[in-house]
Amino acid sequence: MSALLRFSAAMRLSGQRAFARVFARRQTAGNGVIVVHVSPRPENEPARGGIPTVRLGLSVSRRVGGAVERQQWKRAIREAFRHIQHQLPAGYDYVVVVRAKTPPVMETLRAMLLSLAEHAVRRPRGRIRQSRPQRKEST
């Protein structure tokens, strides 16, 4: 396998804080099959080798199906991401949320992932989602 097409652990988005940061930016694009959420990489995280890398996070809920179907989706998205990672806008974190039951053909998935990621990056940034203050219960 070529070193240029690897999907290393450094390219995986992990942790609740990282996912929350991406979801809070509200830069999204979707097509009914997948939804891509995008957020610029934090300034305090160093880029590897001076080149900003891209990171991928996955969200595949139980609504998609059982463990086998969810794992098939994850493998398909990782494989598509691995092939298009150098075409994606650099310096961003991407979270892919799955909405459909079965994954499309690999070439279609690659095209969808690339076009939705580029569209989400080009969209104007929305305001950062703030948590709502707790309401006081009236007695």
Topology overview:
Layout: H1 16-24, E1 27-30, E2 34-40, E3 55-59, H2 67-84, E4 92-98, H3 106-122
Parallel strand pairs: 3-4
Antiparallel strand pairs: 1-2, 2-4
Helix pairs in contact: 2-3
Tell me about the biggest sheet? 4 strands, mixed
Query: Averaged pLDDT, please?
Result: 83
Number of domains: 1
Shape: globular
- Parts with pLDDT < 50 across at least 5 consecutive residues: 127-134
Percent of residues in beta strands: 15-25%
SSE topology string: HEEEHEH
CATH topology: Ribosomal Protein S5, domain 2
Q: Figure out the total of helices.
A: 3
Structural class: alpha+beta
The CATH architecture can be named as: 2-Layer Sandwich
Strand line-up in the sheet with most strands? 1-2-4-3
Quantity of strands, as a count: 4
CATH class: Alpha Beta
* Helix content percent band: 25-40%
